[in-house]
UniProtKB/TrEMBL annotation:
InterPro entries, A to Z: Ig-like_fold (IPR013783), T9SS_type_B (IPR026341)
Protein name: Gliding motility-associated C-terminal domain-containing protein
A Pfam family recorded for this sequence: CHU_C
Gene3D superfamilies: Immunoglobulins
Protein species of origin: Mucilaginibacter humi
Species lineage: Bacteria, Pseudomonadati, Bacteroidota, Sphingobacteriia, Sphingobacteriales
Length: 147
């Protein structure tokens, strides 16, 4: 946390205490696994207090499935990557075995449906690179289309 407050003999109270290294210091260390809103109440030595909220959005590592079945049966038809929607400027690139790019996305707002140029791609293994654009190493691996 990088909160600020000015005054003499100030007391700090954060709530809830979940994920905080301390609830009584101005800038505690936060460890969270889900989105949360914290409230900081600052009280001076005369008993006057003020409160403010801060929303923390947890950036969880994407969970990338290694297979999907785009056969229009309504089950597992798209390559849904859990938590990827938290990374609004990420890039996702998928390549066939010849190294040709068959899918590309910035932000991954719409999950890949196993198509390239409006045509169904065949059963097979495809290589992907997901760059979260936040300083973390790109996520690389393979996804299999099963038809």
């Amino acid at each position: 946390m990088n909160a600020s407050a000015t005054g003499d003999s100030l007391k700090y109270q954060w709530s809830p205490a979940i994920g905080l290294s301390s609830t009584t210091i101005l800038d505690p260390v936060i460890t969270v696994t889900k989105d949360i809103t914290y409230t900081l109440t600052v009280t001076n030595n005369k008993g006057c207090s003020v409160s403010d909220n801060v929303n923390i959005k947890a950036l969880l590592d994407p969970v990338v499935p290694n297979t999907f079945t785009p056969n229009n049966d309504g089950i597992n038809d798209k390559w849904d990557i859990k938590y990827l929607d938290s990374f609004s400027s990420c890039t996702v690139d998928v390549f066939n075995r010849n190294g040709q790019k068959v899918f590309s996305s910035i932000g991954y707002k719409t999950a890949w449906d196993g198509q390239s140029n409006n045509s169904n791609l065949p059963f097979g293994v495809y290589y992907y690179i997901i760059d979260l654009k936040n300083g973390r190493k790109p996520v690389k691996g393979y996804v299999t289309i099963i038809r």
